Amino acid sequence: MLPGRRQVVRTAVVAAAAVTTTTVLAGCLPGDDDPEPPDPELLLRARVAGEARALAARYAATVERFPAARTELATLGAEHEEHARALLPRRAARALASATSTATATATGTASSAPSPSPTSTVPSTLRAARAELAEAERVASRRRLRELRGTGRSPELARLLASVGACEAAHAALLSADA
Amino acid sequence: MTSPAPTTTSGPVVDVVEVLQEALAAEHAVVYGYGVAGARLAGRDRDRALRAYDRHRAQRDELVRVVAGRGGDPVAPAAAYALPHPVEDARDALALVTLLEERLAAVWADAVLELRGDLQQRAAEGLRGAAVAAALWRRGSVPFPGLPERAG
Fold this sequence. Notes:
The complex is a heterodimer of chains A (180) and B (152). With 180 residues, chain A is mostly helical.
């Protein structure tokens, strides 16, 4: 039994509360006069793409703080950018923008630009601690991808993509945690 | 190929048992490959290969149970496997286990596409495990493990 479309959107909105795409969804909270909620799969893609960009920004901040680690960390960070592009190609971002007519401005802004990067000051003071923190963020993200497979409103193709993204995040965590 | 018992439930054309059999066949091959590679490795790599060997044997055994539990006749390992390249030293062995995990990741990724619910979770975990192992063997990451169409 599939939950109603409205409930799907509500779930997506609740799940998104913690991440940077909240502004995309703020205009789509289901209300009594809610005309046409956007495709739940698109909302999920937008939310995970936002998370991917946030992870990339954490890597960028860490590289800024520890330039010697650039070679390794920039590579991992770039893979999150690839995730974001795969999850939300420009075409999908435009579709999202038109679907969320009441929030068009914020939606396009969030979908096409990186979220505000975490300031360098929040990066731990040692590279060792910074790597551990990145690894933990990757683990959390990977677990979330696995849970998202259980959700509704996504195609088998998106499930496969999410599973791969989650596997990449787990691999990042393992590489960051492995002894050099 | 095998001819597993089709699921009796109505609905989608996906034959769940057949999908699981493909994963099982892949795990058989990976177990065999670790046996070959382990003999060419030493020290820490050998220990890691042994642990991976045990992990894949456990996954294989679990798949045997799941397939049988769904009325299938679990595929047996092949009598022999053609190795993708000769395995004569540690370098060959590391290349082999990396390739095996990458191929296994692709099999599990396709299973994610076909399966639903708990079995889909299991497939995603299989993909994740293979991706982690491949990354540690090659000491590097790929952005989309298990998705050959997005490689390179």
